[in-house]
Specification:
The protein has 132 residues and is of the alpha/beta class. Helices cover 26% and strands 30% of the residues.
């Protein structure tokens, strides 16, 4: 499925809609693609204050109210780091997970997930969604 998103508010609302039907989201995106708004929308749907949601680029993962695990795998360079940073252990403790820039999917403890790809085109975002 492909959607065209024209505003940050639409992106936020889309995420809330997606969250109702999926527990694990793999998120691929271009820079400035409003990806944090996706996770903020997911968090809001779970009753989490959106103001505490931040990108985990430098911390690798953030946990919100023991309900949502937010992972960014951008800085991981090899599979060993998945184990060293206890990412699989963290994954097993959460029902709802977002993974930005996923890598090493084959060793993660996830089986059913949604792939969301966001591409920036001018002032719009093209969102492609695929269920696995």
């Amino acid at each position: 499925m492909e959607l065209i998103i024209s505003s940050p508010k639409e992106m936020f609302e889309l995420w809330k809609t997606i969250a109702k039907n999926h527990k694990i989201i793999l998120l691929y995106w271009d820079l400035w693609a409003w990806k944090t708004l996706f996770t903020k929308g997911f968090a809001t749907w779970l009753g989490i204050n959106e103001d505490i949601v931040q990108s985990p680029t430098y911390t690798y993962l953030n946990s919100y109210d023991d309900k949502l695990l937010h992972i960014d795998m951008y800085r991981l360079e090899n599979e060993n780091e998945v184990w060293e940073k206890w990412i699989n252990d963290q994954i097993s403790q959460y029902d709802y997970i977002t993974i930005e820039r996923p890598k090493f999917i084959e060793i993660l403890d996830i089986y059913e997930y949604l792939i969301v790809k966001i591409e920036k085109k001018g002032d719009k975002r093209i969102v492609n969604i695929k269920n696995i």
